Amino acid sequence: TIARRITFPLAAPGMIAAAVFSFITSFDEFYISQFLSSVNTVTLPVQVYNSLTFEIDPSVTAVSAILIAFAILALGLVALVRWIGTGRQESLLSVENTVGVANPGGEAV
Q1: Residue 4 CA to chain centroid, in angstroms?
Q2: Cα(20)–Cα(2) distance, rounded to whole angstroms?
Q3: Can you tell me the distance from the alpha carbon of 51 to that of 17, in angstroms, rounded to the nearest whole number?
Q4: What is the 3-state secondary structure (H, E, C) of the chain?
Q5: How far is CA 22 from CA 27, 70, 77, 99, 106, in A?
Q6: Mean pLDDT for the stretch of residues 6-10
Q7: pLDDT tens for residues 52-87?
Q8: Measured between alpha carbons, how far is residue 39 from residues 33, 34, 48, 105 in Å?
Q9: What is the distance between the alpha carbons of residues 61 and 59, in angstroms, rounded to a whole number?
Q10: What are phi and psi of 108, to 5 degrees?
Q11: 8 A C-beta contact, residue 34 and residue 49
Q12: Which pLDDT score is estimated for 98?
């Protein structure tokens, strides 16, 4: 379909970048998440802060390492999608530049 072959490949890098940026900014907004969350709801930044403040637990270090690895993996995925997209764009441009060019015999290529 058109959506699968055209729309999604064009929108995929933007959607992946938006997901990465929203994931990263969610950890930057610790004070907002602490202020807006209820007593029964504990968000991930608040839980990490509470674990670091009130208890010394090696699982916090493990979770932090996993989150950093996930962020690096997501950034690598964005770079890969951009690199693949650049290769496709260059191949399309090379085809567009050669279509309809007349060769010395007078016939179109």
Answers
A1: 19
A2: 26
A3: 30
A4: CHHHHHHHHHHHHHHHHHHHHHHHHHHHCHHHHHHHCCCCCCCHHHHHHHHHHHCCCHHHHHHHHHHHHHHHHHHHHHHHHHHHHHHHHHHHHHHHHHCCCECCCCCEC
A5: 9, 13, 15, 43, 56
A6: 89
A7: 788 777 777 788 788 889 888 988 888 888 888 776
A8: 12, 10, 16, 81
A9: 5
A10: -75, 145
A11: yes
A12: 53
Distance CA 5, CA 63 (A): 37
β-bridge mates for residue 108, sequence order: 102
At 21-49, the pLDDT tens digits run 877 777 666 677 777 777 787 777 777 77
* Placement of tokens 């010395």 in the chain: 104
What token pair was written down for 5? 């072959």
Position 106 scores a pLDDT of: 54
Please give the share of the chain, as a percent, with pLDDT higher than 90: 1
